[in-house]
Design goal:
It is a single chain. By secondary structure, this protein is mainly α. It contains 11 helices and 2 strands, in the order αββαααααααααα. Strands 1-2 form a two-stranded antiparallel ribbon. Helix 6 packs across helix 8.
């Protein structure tokens, strides 16, 4: 028992270090003007990165707002699409099920360059290039595999028995899905929504390719500093990235849990 407890504490400690250490390093780099090997601590500190963000706060807030809007819309649409898809893959017996599942998960396997180039040509033809709608639609592509996979597992856990029992007791399809399936599915929706938001918020290449430089997102502002080796500005943008994502996810989780609580109260009442 003591060995198991020690192993558990050890794994938790390792996980905490793995999470805290990179964040602590980013915070240090955001204030360091000169930090080179083999120095343990930076040789010089400064506020150049934070001053730059403050002086260009209009551009930063605009790009951050664009990213939050695009990621939120992408998450909403992706989850709405993924729920029926996950249900079919988990519970229904249809022909070509393995082929459909392979197509759904293909964005994880196929390189983003191939997907982006193909979609870029079609979006130009349809007039969706360099538009918010086009960027949202292309952001859905890498999010669908994660959402479908997570929701599929939830459907497999729930199974068909609760819906079938509701039908036996006289419930209609809408009533059964609204008051029986949805409350049980909501925790999975919360997890899938968070994953989709993070994946969408982190997109760079697909957004740059379809947006054509006209739709400016936060990652498009951040990556040039990282690629150029400007660790101070890259770290400042990374901190804003983490804080904005964390705050949005907290708000998202609060809203969805509020809905879940209301649904469970209605479920227990019924």
């Amino acid at each position: 028992m003591n060995n198991k407890r020690f192993f558990y504490v050890f794994m938790v400690a390792i996980s905490m270090v793995a999470i805290i250490a990179p964040i602590a390093m980013i915070i240090i780099l955001s204030f360091s003007k000169n930090y080179s090997w083999p120095s343990v601590i930076p040789n010089d500190f400064g506020l150049r990165g934070w001053n730059y963000v403050f002086e260009n706060r209009g551009r930063v807030l605009t790009s951050l707002g664009n990213s939050i809007f695009i990621s939120s819309m992408t998450t909403l649409i992706t989850v709405l699409i993924s729920i029926p898809c996950a249900k079919v893959l988990a519970l229904d017996d249809i022909k070509g099920k393995k082929i459909i599942e392979s197509l759904v998960f293909s964005p994880i396997i196929i390189p983003p360059v191939s997907i982006g180039m193909g979609l870029s040509v079609e979006f130009i033809r349809m007039g969706l290039a360099r538009t918010y709608l086009g960027v949202i639609l292309v952001s859905i592509v890498p999010c669908i595999p994660y959402a479908v996979r997570m929701l599929k597992e939830v459907f497999l856990i729930i199974g068909k028995k609760y819906i079938e029992q509701a039908y036996i007791l006289g419930a209609g399809t809408l009533y059964a899905y609204r008051y029986v399936l949805f409350p049980m599915l909501l925790p999975g929706i919360i997890s899938a929504s968070m994953m989709c938001y993070i994946v969408s918020f982190s997109q760079y290449f697909l957004v740059y390719l379809i947006g054509g430089g006209r739709i400016n997102t936060f990652t498009m502002d951040m990556f040039p500093f990282i690629q150029s080796g400007d660790r101070m500005l890259g770290s400042v943008y990374a901190i804003i990235f983490v804080l904005s994502t964390f705050f949005t996810l907290i708000v998202m989780e609060y809203i969805l849990k509020k809905i879940y609580k209301n649904e469970m109260e209605n479920y227990n009442y019924i």
